[in-house]
Amino acid sequence: MSAIDDLKEEIKETLSKSKVPEDYLHAQNTVEWLRKIKPDADEILIVAALGHDVERAIEERKIRREDFSDFDTFKEAHAQNSARILKEKMEKYPIGNAQKQRILRIVTRHETGGDPESDLIRDADALSFFDVNLPLYFRREGRERAMERSRWGYERLSPGIKDWVAGFTYDNEALNEIVRALSHDCKGESNTPKK
User: Fold this and answer.
1) Cα–Cα distance between 181 and 44 in angstroms, integer?
2) What residues make up the domain containing 129?
3) Most buried among 56, 63, 116, 177, by the most CB within 10 A?
């Protein structure tokens, strides 16, 4: 196995210990969405997609929403903390400095984007939220919070990716209503990929 493969295995091991049941599945699903958006995604992008939320799985280092006055500041701190943890993990492996810096840049920016690679992870992360996290988030937090969180994720998507959200359907009609409310402005032909 390569050093990158070893790093991916360590990230998976960390995520598997999360107290939030969907964290591990969300990470893997984010990689799947990345591959749908960019089929030729390289290993660095895959590591960034897999590890973008790694801090959530380490209870004693986890950033807590209640410690921040607004959601954007919380998300920025979360992204920086995940990058810090990945930096520590990468130090154990013979991975080139340029590769390490690229992973850290992408993960640090995964909530907001700002460059083509960070935008890819931001979009894959948001699509995975709708695919994996939304039903569980709705159950834990209720309709109003789920709508707020969904709107936040939807609004940060790249314009061409927003159409894809309309393709999500759920057994719970309240979730379908959330998606319809968010995506009612999507115009033109849908390029929604199959899940």
Assistant:
1) 35
2) 3-183
3) 56
What single letter denotes the amino acid at residue 56? Answer: R
Residue that is written with structure tokens 């690679």 in the block = 117
Decide if 61 is inside a domain: yes
What pTM value is reported for the model?
A: 0.91
**How many domains in the chain?**
1
Give the span between the Cα atoms of 181 and 52, in whole angstroms. 28
Q: Measure the CA–CA gap between 115 and 120, rounded to whole angstroms.
A: 9
Taking the C-alpha atoms of residue 174 and residue 51, their distance in angstroms, rounded to an integer, is: 31
Give one DSSP letter per residue of 13-43, joined into a string: HHHTT-SSTTHHHHHHHHHHHHHHH-TT--H
User: Is the residue at 39 inside a domain?
Assistant: yes
Task: Pick the closest to residue 161 from 137, 180, 186 (CA basis).
Answer: 186
* 35-59 per-position pLDDT tens digit: 999 999 999 999 999 999 999 999 9
Is 172 within the bounds of a domain? Answer: yes
